[in-house]
Amino acid sequence: MCKLGLIGQNIDASRSPALHRMLGDLCTLPVSYELQIPTDGSPEAFSHKLDEMLAAGFNGTNVTFPYKQIAIARAEEVNDAVKKIGASNTLRIKNGKIFAYNTDYTGFIRGYRSRIGSSPAGKVLLIGAGGVGRAIGFALFELGATELMVSDLNAAGAQSLVDAINVYGFKARYIAPEDIGDAAKQADGLINCTPVGHYTTPGTPLSPEYFGGQSWAFDAVYTPIDTEFLIAANQANLKIVSGFDLFFYQALDAFEIFTDQSVQDVEPVWNRFREQYEVTSSLI
């Protein structure tokens, strides 16, 4: 049995257990996947939960809000993506050691290429500089981004991401919220990495009037898949990369890290999961 988990807060509705168990079935590998909710959002509560999982013989765990940055401190080894981003969403446990990865980074790259192909990302406006925003901000430069414009209501958080990207020799700059419309008009790609658009926080962080003239758009929100942000992008004839694309491909990458088994034929998994769990969209 391959014992996997997800450490986070407010994760009761997560579809990760279902997808990882399905991947196990398709690879004829028995998989358990259990939600792990620490008592609070502190580093101590996270470490206590992780210690429990180590003692119980877990092979790995995904990590989500608010522990992605905290998780790094518990890892003996971190890969290059984690070093750049400063956050991990995937911990592999092997021979008592913890290895940290970031499959938001790799999953976005796979999701983008599945929808956009080899076309370069170009000049991109990123709205939201939190954990997933940081991962995607760096991943964009693997996809041919020429410049990243970062906007967030938390100016310090946005500037932190800009500074980190510039340190690595890429080009990034901060965009104040009042200048977001002008930045959108300059962009080839538009990205939402805020919670705005989720069922619980409907809306869009970018007014529909600013969509048009860009090439593509991505929304990290995937409940619903057809967010107001992506609907506006579709109406403006932009190519779409959805939050479900990211969810799906980051899970595949994590499963391969956990199990050392590569999923060669992705389409049957995609179709089976969407059908079984009634994942519907008019855009993808």
UniProtKB/TrEMBL annotation:
The protein's matches in SUPFAM superfamilies, at most eight in alphabetical order, are given as: Aminoacid dehydrogenase-like, N-terminal domain, NAD(P)-binding Rossmann-fold domains
* Protein name listed in UniProt: Shikimate dehydrogenase
One MF term from GO for this chain? NADP binding
One GO term under biological process is: aromatic amino acid family biosynthetic process
Pathway where this protein functions: Metabolic intermediate biosynthesis; chorismate biosynthesis; chorismate from D-erythrose 4-phosphate and phosphoenolpyruvate: step 4/7
* Recorded GO CC terms: cytosol
The Shikimate dehydrogenase substrate binding N-terminal domain covers which part of the protein? 6-91
Query: What's in the keyword line of the UniProt record?
Result: Amino-acid biosynthesis, Aromatic amino acid biosynthesis, NADP, Oxidoreductase
Q: Which residues cross the membrane?
A: none
The species this protein was found in? Marinomonas piezotolerans
Q: Which PANTHER family match?
A: BIFUNCTIONAL 3-DEHYDROQUINATE DEHYDRATASE_SHIKIMATE DEHYDROGENASE, CHLOROPLASTIC, SHIKIMATE DEHYDROGENASE
What Gene3D superfamilies has UniProt attached to this entry?
Leucine Dehydrogenase, chain A, domain 1 (3.40.50.10860), NAD(P)-binding Rossmann-like Domain (3.40.50.720)
Q: Which InterPro entries match?
A: Aminoacid_DH-like_N_sf (IPR046346), NAD(P)-bd_dom_sf (IPR036291), Shikimate_DH-bd_N (IPR013708), Shikimate_DH_fam (IPR022893)
